[in-house]
User: What shape does this take?
Amino acid sequence: MTQVLSPKPPRNYAKEREAALARSVDRVVGLREDRDTGALGDEVIKMAQALILCTLPYRPTAERQVVRSARLSDGSTLRVTFTAGINGIDMAFGNDRHLMAWLFDKAINSDTPFVTIKSASDYLRETGKSRNGDRVKELAARLARLTGLVIGIERRSSGSTQTVMLPMIASSNLPSNLTLQLKAEDAGQKRLPGIENPFGIQLEERFFQDIKKHHVAIPKRLWLQLQGQKGGPQLQDLLTFFVYRCYCAQSETVIPWAGLREQFPQDDSNPRRFKQTVKKAVQQLRIVWPEIRIDVVEEGVWVDRAVQPLLPDDPGKKRVRRLSAVS
Assistant: This one.
């Protein structure tokens, strides 16, 4: 007798979204508890200011050049041009930004523009990613896209215009098989037999000096938590940007909707969803940082100097209110 299988019940997408949102809120509440105990400030990750304000595409794109712009809190403007500079290698996108931020932090902390490929193991471990074959293959593809990324940075104020146009990575030496290389390192070998030069990436010196001068310190627990946020890279980028923008705010300002749209990719066919994502970011940030002064208004997003900073000032831990001035 043939057994008749009962059809699967239809997925309840509304319930799934509600459950995902509840999990996100729980994680944010956990960050608030870390902040109250002081644990949130134990470690910070130093992120390039230009890449917090102007972000990479969220999805794979055939475009070879992308332009973003932002207005800074002091009234000056920043424009960043991303270019895929190597034929056959696509534009960096999506979570490539996480690896990029991590590499920059490694370089700044070690005060050297050279980051060894051994750091690939550190990246997977420190970001809580398993080191299976798919993860390593994905990481190798991300490294390749970043090696071809060329960045043009223009800072324009009332009295001057400063520009820098250069590859993010001046040179690289990457193994053809990252899995074999990591296994060799686990066995105590610095590099595979027959390879003379160490594997790694060399940040372009002027770019390295720029991110040392213009970087933003974000609590590392917060940065790691944002990577797992339900809502995709746009919500992650907005939360990171609002942390930065409110942390260094000195006076009342409204960031217009048009300005926000120039900063962040607009891949969604429904423009109203961008405003919904902004509201969600503001709501979650208020949980972590209740003294914050931020609100969504008709013209855009209103921000003002917070009654209390996200973390107490601590120069010894690279934490000061005017984070863009940290070097």
